[in-house]
């Protein structure tokens, strides 16, 4: 069902959510959304029915709001659909689960072009195809509001395994990460520094001018590609704790430290930069493994779990992201 | 965990989402939310884990947006929390499923008082307790935006039964409804007629002045109490098709007619009024049963399924909600 163009006439730019109405717009969007292999009953009734073969399902929800979470001058519809899927898939992966399905509650201004909504659906579809094949959209809701808002709820299956919590890291465990750190933070810093107009407002032309030189950091920010399949791989390799690095490595490492009652000691050289330590929206997977575990492909060791009061250390010294000792002061100054 | 006052200091009116920050506000809200009996892992990690004993789960999502879906001058926070839960629970019930859990994505202005958010949580909790005991909140997300938006995703279990679809009504079936028809439509018509200021804007004082004389229709609109448990009862009684009446009986009956390839012939006297036929937001359950089935408690017969082109008939004559023959013209004129 991913070839929407074959089953619905292409939208023209003049058609909007308001002029077409919800039913007609849904008719445009649904053929573009990905099927879920786990769907026993897909969209179209009061509710969908999804398979949960081991008698449990994993569920998480995360919302993207225009303004705080994205700016239309910088993000295309395709990128927003992609990011809304990817960030939720990463939360499922961080439990050691395989993503199975999404539902999408979209709230958009009546003036939103139908073609824009189609491109958002394309982004959802392509993110599922690239990051979590078999995962699809089983339901949704479309409403009208002045503020564009995309609320995704994502599901996964644990395939008989225990979920990987934040609270089971043990002294002596290795701390490892899979995925990029700091690139998304570099991307947003770059956009705020160089893709705003003279009044400081986000500017599409200036953002476009940053490509292709800054493709890597802009893509990490605008259309991240978290290592979704590595969540299951980490669980199979015996990960003791895991989470999705969404608010910066230091802050998310602190969440493991506090939930597990341990200190997390990071290796500054292995982490690599101040931005890798504190930049947000990486959606990398941060996990702890028993010493001697064979780490799954893609994971690299960046520290060690130590006994002690819950804290994040860098090279053995207490690290406070809001001031305090800063191992990367020079690098930080370069990106503002 | 439903006695939030015992585990968190009461919020004062001066504290807002913006002044307290997301983490502190979540600390206020979570103790007030209902536990889900089906939660294997509740809020606090990247995702929750919910039991699905028969290897499937039902899922639906519906959003309330300030402006199109509610007005703060008319709805209290408690009522909004209640309605957001109730409307989603009704969609689960309409599949013949028992509601198990909710996730809530709340987007609110930074100026929103913390106590308002607490009252919203109270409404979610009390709706679950009253309408679907055992159903609770397993996760959520809190974001900031100018437009207050509440996106709820609800889950249910089918307990080994087939879901009751819209598409299996058969000629000869009885058409029956459980729950009130038309009251919610009367409520919104009353509010727009008599609870607006001289410029036509929603007015809280004028809405308050309508109570207690109009409690019944205002409550049906602002804090509906759909017959959630009757969804399972209908499935057990052999319902062939069912849906949640959200857009008015005539329009939702048409959905069954079109999905099933039948005509639905409604009895004008049994339906009772024009508003019962066309008013929205009833969240009653409309179902079809084989002739001779023992209807579950609360269901009343309002028509019959007939062979023929998909259509809604009233007393055997084609009914078109947008004009055409109107069996209740006199009554309609009375509420405007």
Automatic annotation (TrEMBL), chains A, B:
<dbReference type="InterPro" id="IPR036921">
    <property type="entry name" value="PurM-like_N_sf"/>
</dbReference>
<feature type="binding site">
    <location>
        <position position="46"/>
    </location>
    <ligand>
        <name>Mg(2+) 4</name>
    </ligand>
</feature>
<keyword id="KW-0808">Transferase</keyword>
<feature type="binding site">
    <location>
        <position position="46"/>
    </location>
    <ligand>
        <name>Mg(2+) 3</name>
    </ligand>
</feature>
<feature type="binding site">
    <location>
        <position position="61"/>
    </location>
    <ligand>
        <name>Mg(2+) 1</name>
    </ligand>
</feature>
<protein>
    <recommendedName>
        <fullName>Thiamine-monophosphate kinase</fullName>
        <ecNumber>2.7.4.16</ecNumber>
    </recommendedName>
</protein>
<keyword id="KW-0067">ATP-binding</keyword>
<comment type="function">
    <text>Catalyzes the ATP-dependent phosphorylation of thiamine-monophosphate (TMP) to form thiamine-pyrophosphate (TPP), the active form of vitamin B1.</text>
</comment>
<feature type="binding site">
    <location>
        <begin position="140"/>
        <end position="141"/>
    </location>
    <ligand>
        <name>ATP</name>
    </ligand>
</feature>
<dbReference type="GO" id="GO:0009228">
    <property type="term" value="P:thiamine biosynthetic process"/>
</dbReference>
<feature type="binding site">
    <location>
        <position position="281"/>
    </location>
    <ligand>
        <name>substrate</name>
    </ligand>
</feature>
<dbReference type="GO" id="GO:0009030">
    <property type="term" value="F:thiamine-phosphate kinase activity"/>
</dbReference>
<dbReference type="Pfam" id="PF02769">
    <property type="entry name" value="AIRS_C"/>
</dbReference>
<feature type="domain" description="PurM-like C-terminal">
    <location>
        <begin position="170"/>
        <end position="276"/>
    </location>
</feature>
<keyword id="KW-0547">Nucleotide-binding</keyword>
<feature type="binding site">
    <location>
        <position position="166"/>
    </location>
    <ligand>
        <name>ATP</name>
    </ligand>
</feature>
<keyword id="KW-0479">Metal-binding</keyword>
<dbReference type="GO" id="GO:0000287">
    <property type="term" value="F:magnesium ion binding"/>
</dbReference>
<feature type="binding site">
    <location>
        <position position="62"/>
    </location>
    <ligand>
        <name>Mg(2+) 2</name>
    </ligand>
</feature>
<dbReference type="Pfam" id="PF00586">
    <property type="entry name" value="AIRS"/>
</dbReference>
<feature type="binding site">
    <location>
        <position position="91"/>
    </location>
    <ligand>
        <name>Mg(2+) 2</name>
    </ligand>
</feature>
<dbReference type="GO" id="GO:0009229">
    <property type="term" value="P:thiamine diphosphate biosynthetic process"/>
</dbReference>
<feature type="binding site">
    <location>
        <position position="244"/>
    </location>
    <ligand>
        <name>Mg(2+) 3</name>
    </ligand>
</feature>
<dbReference type="InterPro" id="IPR036676">
    <property type="entry name" value="PurM-like_C_sf"/>
</dbReference>
<dbReference type="InterPro" id="IPR006283">
    <property type="entry name" value="ThiL-like"/>
</dbReference>
<feature type="binding site">
    <location>
        <position position="62"/>
    </location>
    <ligand>
        <name>Mg(2+) 1</name>
    </ligand>
</feature>
<keyword id="KW-0418">Kinase</keyword>
<feature type="binding site">
    <location>
        <position position="141"/>
    </location>
    <ligand>
        <name>Mg(2+) 1</name>
    </ligand>
</feature>
<feature type="binding site">
    <location>
        <position position="247"/>
    </location>
    <ligand>
        <name>Mg(2+) 5</name>
    </ligand>
</feature>
<feature type="binding site">
    <location>
        <position position="69"/>
    </location>
    <ligand>
        <name>substrate</name>
    </ligand>
</feature>
<feature type="binding site">
    <location>
        <position position="60"/>
    </location>
    <ligand>
        <name>Mg(2+) 4</name>
    </ligand>
</feature>
<feature type="domain" description="PurM-like N-terminal">
    <location>
        <begin position="44"/>
        <end position="157"/>
    </location>
</feature>
<dbReference type="InterPro" id="IPR016188">
    <property type="entry name" value="PurM-like_N"/>
</dbReference>
<feature type="binding site">
    <location>
        <position position="246"/>
    </location>
    <ligand>
        <name>ATP</name>
    </ligand>
</feature>
<feature type="binding site">
    <location>
        <position position="325"/>
    </location>
    <ligand>
        <name>substrate</name>
    </ligand>
</feature>
<keyword id="KW-0784">Thiamine biosynthesis</keyword>
<keyword id="KW-0460">Magnesium</keyword>
<dbReference type="GO" id="GO:0005524">
    <property type="term" value="F:ATP binding"/>
</dbReference>
<comment type="similarity">
    <text>Belongs to the thiamine-monophosphate kinase family.</text>
</comment>
<dbReference type="InterPro" id="IPR010918">
    <property type="entry name" value="PurM-like_C_dom"/>
</dbReference>
<comment type="pathway">
    <text>Cofactor biosynthesis; thiamine diphosphate biosynthesis; thiamine diphosphate from thiamine phosphate: step 1/1.</text>
</comment>
<feature type="binding site">
    <location>
        <position position="91"/>
    </location>
    <ligand>
        <name>Mg(2+) 3</name>
    </ligand>
</feature>
């Amino acid at each position: 069902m991913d070839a929407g163009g074959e089953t619905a006439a292409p939208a023209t730019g003049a058609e909007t959510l308001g002029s077409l109405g919800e039913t007609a717009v849904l008719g445009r969007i649904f053929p573009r959304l990905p099927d879920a292999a786990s769907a026993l009953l897909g969209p179209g009734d009061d509710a969908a029915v999804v398979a949960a073969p081991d008698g449990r399902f994993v569920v998480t929800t995360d919302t993207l709001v225009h303004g705080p979470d994205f700016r239309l001058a910088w993000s295309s519809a395709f990128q927003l659909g992609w990011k809304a899927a990817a960030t939720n898939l990463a939360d499922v992966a961080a439990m050691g689960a395989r993503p199975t399905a999404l539902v999408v509650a979209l709230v958009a201004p009546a003036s939103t072009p139908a073609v824009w909504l189609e491109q958002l659906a394309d982004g959802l579809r392509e993110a599922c195809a690239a990051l979590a094949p078999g995962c699809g959209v089983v339901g949704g809701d479309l409403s009208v509001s002045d503020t564009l808002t995309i609320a995704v709820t994502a599901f996964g299956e644990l395939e008989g395994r225990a979920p990987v919590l934040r609270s089971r890291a043990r002294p002596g465990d290795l701390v490892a990460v899979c995925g990029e750190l700091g690139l998304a933070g570099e991307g947003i810093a770059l956009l705020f520094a160089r893709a705003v107009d003279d009044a400081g407002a986000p500017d599409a032309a200036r953002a476009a001018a940053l490509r292709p030189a800054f493709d890597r950091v802009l893509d990490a920010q605008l259309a991240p590609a978290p290592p979704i399949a590595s969540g299951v791989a980490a669980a199979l390799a015996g990960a003791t704790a895991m989470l999705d690095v969404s608010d910066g490595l230091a802050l998310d490492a602190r969440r493991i430290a506090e939930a597990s009652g341990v200190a997390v000691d990071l290796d500054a050289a292995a982490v690599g930069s101040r931005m890798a330590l504190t930049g947000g929206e990486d959606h990398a997977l941060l996990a702890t493994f028993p010493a001697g575990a064979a780490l799954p492909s893609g994971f690299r060791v960046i520290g060690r779990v130590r006994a002690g009061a819950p804290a994040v250390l860098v090279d053995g010294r207490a690290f406070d992201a809001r001031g305090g000792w800063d191992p990367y002061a020079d690098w930080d100054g370069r990106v503002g």
